[in-house]
Amino acid sequence: MRESSRGFRAETALSPECNAEALSIESIQQAVAEAFEVRIDDLSGRRPTLQINNYPEQVRKARNAALYLCRELTKHNATRIAERFGRKPAVVKRAVESVRAIIDADVDLASRLVSAAQRLQADLSQRGEDDAALFTEQLAQDHRHK
User: Fold this and answer.
1) Predicted TM-score (pTM) above 0.85
2) Fold annotation for 21-144
C-alpha cells in the first residue's frame, strides 16, 4: 500500500465496494484541472498555453497531483497513466514521490486535492456511486489533521 509519512492514504479513501474502474484517468484530469484552475490540455501538453504569472508552476503542481491521484486511485500502471499525460513512466513515479513527500506540509496542495476529490465524488454520485463519499471524507479528515 502507498502511504505518506503521516498516514495519508489516497486509496483507502474509497470504500472497498466502490468500483475502482469507475474513476477514469480522464475524470481525474478534469477534476484536478478544475481544482487547480488550469486548462485540461495543459496537464498533458509539453508547455502551458499561458506563460504569465505563476501559471506554468500551477500547471506543474496540478499535473503532479493528477498523476498522484491516477496512480493511487486507479488500477492503471505507470505506463498507462504516462501515456494519457504524454509523459514517460518515470515521470509518473517522480510525481507520486514528490506529492507524497510534500502532501503533509503543503496546505494548498492538500486543499486542492480535497477539492478534486469532491468533484470526483460528485461525478461518481451522478453515476450512482454514492459510496464515493468516503473518498472525500477521508481526504478532508487528513487535511483537517494537519
Assistant:
1) no
2) Chromosomal Replication Initiator Protein Dnaa; Chain: A; (1.10.1750)
Identify residue 73 by its one-letter amino acid code: L
pLDDT tens for each residue of 71-95: 998 999 999 999 999 999 999 999 9
| Mean local confidence (pLDDT), 50-62 | 83
Residue with cell string 494537519: 146
* Cell numbers that stand for 59 in this block: 500547471
Residue pLDDT, tens place only, 31-41: 999 999 999 99
Q: From CA 16, how far away is CA 134, in angstroms rounded?
A: 10
Residue 109: name the closest of 73, 146, 82 by CA.
Answer: 146
**Neighbour tally for 95: CB within 10 Å:** 24
CA 124-20-85 angle, to 5 degrees, is 90
